[in-house]
Automatic annotation (TrEMBL):
It comes from Ramlibacter humi. InterPro entries: HSQ_synthase_HpnC, Isoprenoid_synthase_dom_sf, Squ/phyt_synthse, Trans_IPPS_bact-type, Trans_IPPS_HH. Its EC number is 2.5.1.21. Pfam families: SQS_PSY. PANTHER family: BIFUNCTIONAL LYCOPENE CYCLASE/PHYTOENE SYNTHASE. CDD domains: Trans_IPPS_HH. This is Squalene synthase HpnC. One of its GO terms (biological process) is terpenoid biosynthetic process. Signal peptide: none annotated.
Length: 282
């Protein structure tokens, strides 16, 4: 079981920029603190061979430390390298603790939801998961930039949910063998794909299903894209890169014929120029 933060493995797919050079120096420490808080919780839920019960216990202890920290009390010290910088960020920037708790709720759901054969009934249920697994990070970043209007928050949610969905459709060939099912049961039924064993469906039905899901993710991303013009300075350019990187992954999935059951698309060196050009055009 992961108990201390460590460098993220190189094959982790990251949905969010982390304290890059585009970020104002003053905001790099709180962004890094948020990242390591989420990264460590994700590792507790997902890495190693510990049984589900022990993972849930560890996340409960992790949650208790967060609650203590948010109320100005001492933590257990078990994850001091995470909570010490996070405490500084909470004090200096008044980070909304409920958003951090939402992330933990999603990580707890990861342990019990997909590992016991249960998937997501429909898109609404999957979006509820995204609202806790991805959207809080975008809202926390907007908080640091002092952006809190409802329109910007809604666009941030659309971008973050789209990134989460793109990650799902990119990783079908990785997730399904591990018992993780994110394809909504209702969508599977519409394409005559067994949600319990979607890889067993005929290739053309699988591809049509993935195309359908990618169209959904693209619509969400384009819905949120105007936020890049609302976020100031270099961070707005970074957000353009996030949006165009996600859209480019969808292009790569399409280039594979939407068959991510057997291949995992990634951004290649030549894609970087395409992303850069699209960033300029936004």
């Amino acid at each position: 079981m992961t108990e201390e933060p460590r460098a993220a493995p190189v094959d982790h797919y990251e949905n969010f920029p982390v304290a890059s050079w585009l970020c104002p120096p003053r905001l790099r420490p709180p962004i890094a603190a948020i990242y390591w808080f989420a990264r460590t919780a994700d590792d507790i839920a997902d890495e190693g061979d510990a049984p589900a019960g022990r993972r849930i216990e560890a996340l409960a202890a992790y949650r208790a430390d967060l609650v203590a920290l948010s109320h100005g009390r001492a933590t257990s010290g078990r994850w001091d390298a995470v909570f010490r910088p996070l405490g500084a960020a909470l004090r200096e920037f008044a980070l909304p603790a409920p958003l951090l708790l939402d992330l933990l709720s999603a990580f707890e759901q990861d342990i019990v939801k997909t590992r016991d054969g249960h998937g997501y009934r429909d898109r609404g249920e999957l979006l509820d998961y995204c609202a806790r697994s991805a959207n809080p990070v975008g809202r926390l970043l907007l908080h640091l930039y002092g952006i809190a209007d409802e329109g910007s928050l809604a666009r941030s949610d659309a971008i973050c949910s789209a990134l989460q969905l793109i990650n799902f459709w990119q990783d079908l060939g990785v997730d399904l063998p591990r018992g993780r099912r994110y394809l909504p049961d209702a969508d599977c039924a519409a394409f005559h794909v067994d949600p319990l064993v979607p890889a067993s469906a005929p290739v053309e039905q699988r591809r049509a299903l993935v195309r359908h899901e990618c169209e959904w993710a693209r619509e969400l991303m384009l819905e949120g894209a105007p936020l890049a013009r609302r976020v100031p300075g270099r961070a707005g350019w970074e957000l353009r890169g996030v949006v165009q990187g996600g859209l480019r992954i969808l292009d790569r999935i399409e280039a594979l014929g939407f068959d991510t059951f057997t291949a995992r698309p990634t951004i290649r060196r030549r894609d970087v120029a395409v992303i850069g050009l699209r960033m300029l055009r936004m």
